[in-house]
């Protein structure tokens, strides 16, 4: 397809340039009939055309689309109007930091979320037993009656994302065309891992497989059998693997696309603009969604931090031999760690959070490697591939378990599988928003496959080594192992049985503390963004405020209700997964709908239509001797294939405005604003300037180009 200057369209493609007479329509013998040697199957021609169009369209996202030229005097004038005179397929994307948006504290969201927080804390202070009772009742109802729905949602999300990743939409970037990833792959994976899993990798990695080995899921294997060993690993992988990370990837990918490709706020509500319109998504309904995300993040993280502090305290008690931890000692631990995560949070994502996450993943890999080489190495090397194959082989079986399998299976599902699905769903606003913040510049395919499979693979290896070692030690009668151990006890008993590493428990305490810090600082930053209208770098005092509130809730629940109040809080957070599971289904619909109008998707569709038609027509008329050329066509006969490129679905999103929402001229090729605004200036200064003389420096789009054939 030639990219030279557009030919003079007064002479249609397929004419004799010397005589001006029409070239033969069907063949070169001048008779108007098709030469016998060039008579071919029309179906084969069409199939070849589709293949050529696909090959041609593969690299369309990398082409340099120059601005349209002015029509010549002989060409009809085109009256098509687009924002900034820019056709939808020529828009390179809009990043959130290129928008003229005033970031400030959203007083409505801040006030409502704060009021709900204070009300809950007062409830917990005055009647902690009531909190636990109400939470237990709501939790039991949700897991018993809505458990099947959580299973269905988990399956739909995973399947939808895999379809999206391997479709043509997978090449669309979470950013502008050709934008590079903001963080290195190592830093990105480290932050994914720290925010999404945190302290669980060391505590639940050894303990959960051991639990399933001793008490397998109903109707599966005999306790403590060889089959139970592999089944225990598969069940653990099922709860912590692909499904969990798919939930995070859905929310994170949709938010990242809206913010870094469409230029919207880094908010959960921005996803739904394509479904419900700008007024609803930025109005009352959108604020409700963002308030819900803040409350779920705040209480979910507070409960997790309180329980994590208790687990760290148990570890300190085991290592130091100081006896059971008191509540006062736990409060001291929380306060010390709070100082650490606030310092990390206010330093920003690119500094404190990234550095701590990188350090922690290195230390975690080191601990897991020591367990592998100092533990039952040969046993573990045999177990890892077997456990993975068992997981993949029994995946559909585990996905299908429900109440229909009997009361015992239902009870197991409620305590374990449904609990995990609800927990991942309730945490997805927090983790998803954070993942969106760190994933700018990656393609949708890289993002989805990376978010689902890289952390899952790391977890499979880590949990296989830690869980396999704990089961092996239990079977061999290692010192300290029993069938009724708490999660922290299993981990510290495991490393206590390793040779030559008396110092390892102290390193483990440091790793656990950093996991605590990286989860909490990520949550503080996310809540700061949600209450600051999606500001990527929220004000430090807002971040500090939410960090203190989060720790304060954990401390109050510990002092007044001990573990029962924290568990009640955790159960209430899980109940919030019921409405958010429905929201996640809407996210799938909204994201797929918006991708249909993405500039890169439109370019490929235009290319396929144009090349399809041109190759079939060229082979039909000229056999092998034809080339493709871009010429202007009559309206309706172009490469758009019936797409109404002037429709608001295609054009409404890239009209640039000032901070007050008023349209302002913009040149997409130079990045210049018609009123002279730059990121270094303020909107107040820009508003004082004269009105721009024109909405844009771009010329009118000269028709709808189509690939035509010439001899």
Automatic annotation (TrEMBL):
<feature type="transmembrane region" description="Helical">
    <location>
        <begin position="146"/>
        <end position="166"/>
    </location>
</feature>
<feature type="transmembrane region" description="Helical">
    <location>
        <begin position="503"/>
        <end position="529"/>
    </location>
</feature>
<keyword id="KW-1003">Cell membrane</keyword>
<keyword id="KW-1133">Transmembrane helix</keyword>
<feature type="region of interest" description="Disordered">
    <location>
        <begin position="1"/>
        <end position="86"/>
    </location>
</feature>
<dbReference type="Pfam" id="PF02028">
    <property type="entry name" value="BCCT"/>
</dbReference>
<feature type="transmembrane region" description="Helical">
    <location>
        <begin position="329"/>
        <end position="349"/>
    </location>
</feature>
<feature type="transmembrane region" description="Helical">
    <location>
        <begin position="447"/>
        <end position="466"/>
    </location>
</feature>
<feature type="compositionally biased region" description="Basic and acidic residues">
    <location>
        <begin position="64"/>
        <end position="73"/>
    </location>
</feature>
<feature type="transmembrane region" description="Helical">
    <location>
        <begin position="288"/>
        <end position="309"/>
    </location>
</feature>
<feature type="region of interest" description="Disordered">
    <location>
        <begin position="655"/>
        <end position="711"/>
    </location>
</feature>
<keyword id="KW-0812">Transmembrane</keyword>
<feature type="transmembrane region" description="Helical">
    <location>
        <begin position="242"/>
        <end position="260"/>
    </location>
</feature>
<feature type="transmembrane region" description="Helical">
    <location>
        <begin position="361"/>
        <end position="384"/>
    </location>
</feature>
<feature type="compositionally biased region" description="Acidic residues">
    <location>
        <begin position="682"/>
        <end position="693"/>
    </location>
</feature>
<dbReference type="InterPro" id="IPR000060">
    <property type="entry name" value="BCCT_transptr"/>
</dbReference>
<feature type="compositionally biased region" description="Polar residues">
    <location>
        <begin position="7"/>
        <end position="22"/>
    </location>
</feature>
<comment type="similarity">
    <text>Belongs to the BCCT transporter (TC 2.A.15) family.</text>
</comment>
<feature type="transmembrane region" description="Helical">
    <location>
        <begin position="572"/>
        <end position="592"/>
    </location>
</feature>
<keyword id="KW-0813">Transport</keyword>
<feature type="transmembrane region" description="Helical">
    <location>
        <begin position="108"/>
        <end position="126"/>
    </location>
</feature>
<feature type="transmembrane region" description="Helical">
    <location>
        <begin position="418"/>
        <end position="435"/>
    </location>
</feature>
<keyword id="KW-0472">Membrane</keyword>
<dbReference type="GO" id="GO:0005886">
    <property type="term" value="C:plasma membrane"/>
</dbReference>
<feature type="transmembrane region" description="Helical">
    <location>
        <begin position="186"/>
        <end position="205"/>
    </location>
</feature>
<feature type="transmembrane region" description="Helical">
    <location>
        <begin position="541"/>
        <end position="560"/>
    </location>
</feature>
<dbReference type="GO" id="GO:0022857">
    <property type="term" value="F:transmembrane transporter activity"/>
</dbReference>
<feature type="compositionally biased region" description="Basic and acidic residues">
    <location>
        <begin position="35"/>
        <end position="57"/>
    </location>
</feature>
<protein>
    <submittedName>
        <fullName>BCCT family transporter</fullName>
    </submittedName>
</protein>
